[in-house]
Amino acid sequence: MEEQDSETQSSGSGGEEETLKLEPEGLRHDVEDQHVLQFLDSLDGYITLMDSLSLTLRQGWLELASARHSMGASRVNSALLNLKFHSASTSLQVTRNDVDSEANEANFTLCKWASSNSGHSSAGEKFREDKLQTKHDSPDLRHRSKSQFSDETSVQSGASLVADDHVQRERSKSLSVFGTLVSPKLRAAQLSFETALEMLVEIANTRSTMLSAFNRVKKGLEDIKS
Amino acid sequence: MDTVVGFLLAGVGNVDLRRKTNYLIVDSKTTVKQIEDAFKEFTSRDDIAIVLISQYVANMIRFLVDSYNKPVPAILEVPSKDHPYDPGRDSVLSRVKYLFSAESVASGRR
């Protein structure tokens, strides 16, 4: 190592410039390798998640078929779908990463079972409604906590109970399209498709990462060619 | 149909004041034109972030799906009950497999 150091020093100013020129290229290769690794990781994640999604969907279809068998084909039917005005109870929040214009990466967050009472509320408002119901310092919850509970953990468990009740109500509302009394298999199918939905949001985020990493790698290859 | 019914149970169904839905059930009577129109409509709406399409249905409008390249709404091809997922037909994977082609590797090495 010492001999190599003396050689670089003895080459004089020209050698120092050469050493300095090598460093940015080395750094560029490291960055390109990082993009390639990110691309390959996200590609692997995407394919793995698609496999898991297939399994979850298969379970959901089986449960739906069992529900149809027990309740009758006329009761589990697309003809019963609600065509009255209503908003989606489950929505998405999208944030865009515009720092790097070539990356153009979007991030999706699932907001499950927000209130569907107000037809014109946006996804953001639904998310805020969800947050308000779980926040422990909101007035209604504070009032409830004073009368019944005394410590912070009790307030939080109270808030989560309220959120759970809300979620159960929304689930029942969704199931009520197929009648008041439904088969447990239909409820199980609902949970399977909820899980599938969570996976799909993960797949969407992985897809976004993969495509932005792909664009960076492609640009790197084009720079090398030029 | 079961895929749409399942996801509607999960709470993603939306019907607006004009009774327009955010989903389309494809059956034997649905034409390719109807599927194309629905795809164009869903991909141009501001209130849709992800479009789920069965890969079997996507194959009917493959040119349209493959030529779509906006980040939002994201197009996700999902398996259907009668047609399993084929990674070779996925539009996203088709787009990125260019990196693994012999031509791109050879040109990078020059």
From TrEMBL, chain A:
GO molecular function, one term: unfolded protein binding
An annotated GO BP: vacuolar proton-transporting V-type ATPase complex assembly
PANTHER family in the cross-refs: COILED-COIL DOMAIN-CONTAINING PROTEIN 115 (PTHR31996:SF2)
Domain of life: Eukaryota
Stated name of the protein: Vacuolar ATPase assembly protein VMA22
Residue ranges, compositional bias (Polar residues): 147-159
Gene transcribed to yield this protein: LOC107419855
Chain segments carrying region Disordered: 1-28, 116-166
Residue ranges, compositional bias (Basic and acidic residues): 18-28, 123-142
UniProt xrefs under InterPro entries: Vma22/CCDC115
Native source species: Ziziphus jujuba (Chinese jujube)
From TrEMBL, chain B:
Keyword NADP: no
Keyword terms of this UniProt record: Hydrogen ion transport, Ion transport, Transport
Entry annotated with the keyword Ion transport: yes
GO molecular function: proton-transporting ATPase activity, rotational mechanism
Pfam families on file: ATP-synt_F
One GO location term (cellular component): proton-transporting V-type ATPase, V1 domain
InterPro entries with a match to the protein in the record: ATPase_V1-cplx_f_g_su, ATPase_V1-cplx_fsu_euk, ATPase_V1_fsu_sf
Family: Belongs to the V-ATPase F subunit family.
NCBIfam families linked: V_ATP_synt_F
Protein name, as recorded: V-type proton ATPase subunit F isoform X3
Provenance organism: Ziziphus jujuba (Chinese jujube)
Annotated gene: LOC107425907
